[in-house]
Amino acid sequence: MALSGVLVAAPQSRALEISSTIRREGDKTPVALFEELGALKTAQAFGVLERSIGQVKSASKYRAIFTAMRHFLPDEELGEKAIRLTLRYAKGRDKVEAPPAATALAGFGAAATEALLELAAEGKLPGPRASALQGLQAEILERGSLDLLDLVLESWITPRSGTQAQACAIIGSFRELEAFKRMAKYMGAKKGSYQMRQTILLAMGSHPFGTSPELDEGVEQVLYRGVQSKDPRLRYYALDAMATRGGTESLPAVTRLTKDRDPAVRRLALLVVLRCTSNAKGAVGLSRASDPVSRQAAAIFLAESSAPGALEALHALLEDEDSSVRAEAIRQIGRRREVASILPLIECLSRENGRLRGDAHFVLTMMTGMDLGFRVGSWRSFWRDKGDGFQMPTLEEARKIAAELAANQSEEGMSAVSFYGLTVISDSFVLVVDTSGSMSAKVKDEKTRLDIAKEQINGAVKRIRDGSLFNVIPFADNARPMEEVLIEMGDSLREDSVLFVEGLRAAGGTNVYEGLAAAFEDELVDTIYLLTDGDPSSGAITDSVELREEVQRWNSVRGIRIHCISVGKASALLKGLAEDSGGDYTEVK
Q1: Which ranges of the chain have pLDDT less than 70?
Q2: The CATH number of the domain where 526 resides is what?
Q3: Domain hosting residue 35, numbered range
Q4: What 3-state class would DSSP assign to 471?
């Protein structure tokens, strides 16, 4: 009996001991002690944890306290108390207490479902309401009630509530006509967030056109609001959903957007119209339009069309006067994969320089299973000998060839320039370089990150061929281009560039948006090398997901290849920017 009494008393004495430490140390209390209290799972330990909320002030300690409450969930009485206590603080207005309480509650699992619903509906702060949805995703998908849709529309914040892909899946799971009416109403409401409007439009692309009359009617209500938006970004995403779905009943509204001032919107509107009308003849005519964006849209549709003359019209765009149109034609010919396109691509290789020459070479390799480098004569000889009855390799075989090509890419006929190990094959490129305060961190031999970046830039500058077009755009709080536009490389520019780079200093925030925007403003740029050591912290867009999507929108009409160098850590943003544009991504210390 005595031994049993010792075992019972031990948790009680330990709880009292920890309580004494918390009263004495306050915010200096080790986080592990709060976790230990939870692990005791006794009523006394719960009481100590509850009192400790009033004995600390820092967010990290609140986080530890509320997280430790999960240990009490298996106990029917204490579990209910833990949930209600955590909910009370999560619903409050205190900006230090409420967020960690909401995060903890979202991690409590199914036992806290009703509490999370209450928090999402009644929480005083947007952050905790958004956190509640993180723990409600499965419940929302299972129940599918319109009240839950309203909660998502009003409170979801990416990434606090979950990823944008998760938000799209949830929005896309609501298929009743009334649900679409509520989404359409949200699209037109003044108080709605841009992020949620964009998510709604992206979700609409998951409903194929023609699935059912009721579904089409609902989706069209939402997308019509999108194409009527004053924000070109939302018009773009509405059109993108229509292009993905494969049709629309709002063709008059879309047709009006074929004259839109925003080139990305105009391009998608033209493509939607072509797809809806299956107008191959119109696409052939559009391939000769004065607007390069129109010719890009024509290239995409011609690659999809089996109509007579479509492939020949696509081949003709390989000789277009605009490099962005030629780039689109090369890309679309690679998608279509026709034997008849191999000879036109060989002739394209003979005409192109820089990046587009590399693009043509890559597509030729993918289509033939051969890597004859950039020697046009070798390609012509190959086709003269093997062209009759040539069998194109499968796409799987082609991908293996492409992987080998990427690993052993020949530099023959190209500049020997490299930047952080990435070969520069463009002759119209810009280096967009982070000079924020964090670039002053010392990493090797007393050199800072910026010191090493300067060495890399000036090493590249010394090897750039005369005649190549080049610029440097440093960015911190703002972008500060060396020149307003790309300048032709020569001895004078080489010297000026070295002096400019040597004068760079590390200070300020990380305005990735403005650095990229400055590069996109130059119509001659076809390749960007982006170097940064941090996530966006200043500028018009600091959310990484939103920034990636905005750059993808810009690039839909430019086809710029973005190569990214992440310094000091992995970067989902930089990896995504590279993947979206067909560029390379690398990490350096």
Answers
A1: 1-9, 402-416
A2: 3.40.50.410
A3: 2-142
A4: strand
Provide the pLDDT for residue 175: 94
* Alpha helix (H) residue ranges in 408-521: 449-463, 491-502, 512-521
What letter would DSSP give residue 199? H
* 379 vs 370: CA distance, rounded Å: 9
| Cβ-based neighbour number of residue 109 at 10 Å | 12
3-state SS assignment for residue 338: coil
User: 275-312 as b/e, with b when 16 or more CB fall inside 10 Å?
Assistant: bbeebbeebbebbeeebbbbbbbbbbbbbbbebeebbe
Residue-wise DSSP of 345-385: HHHHHHH--HHHHHHHHHHHHHHHS---TT-HHHHHHHHHH
Partners of residue 567 on adjacent β-strands: 588
Task: Compute the mean pLDDT over every residue in the chain, rounded to the nearest whole number.
Answer: 92
> In this predicted structure, what is the pLDDT of residue 3?
43
Q: Cβ–Cβ contacts within 10 Å for residue 45, how many?
A: 25
Does any domain span residue 47? Answer: yes
- Boundary of a domain, candidates 80, 107, 142: 142
| Structural domain ending residue among the three candidates 83, 110, 142 | 142
- The answer to whether 317 and 298 are in contact (CB under 8 A) is yes
CA–CA distance, 435 with 449 (Å, rounded to integer) = 9
pLDDT, tens only, 223-253: 999 999 999 999 999 999 999 998 888 999 9
Q: Give 23's strand partners.
A: none
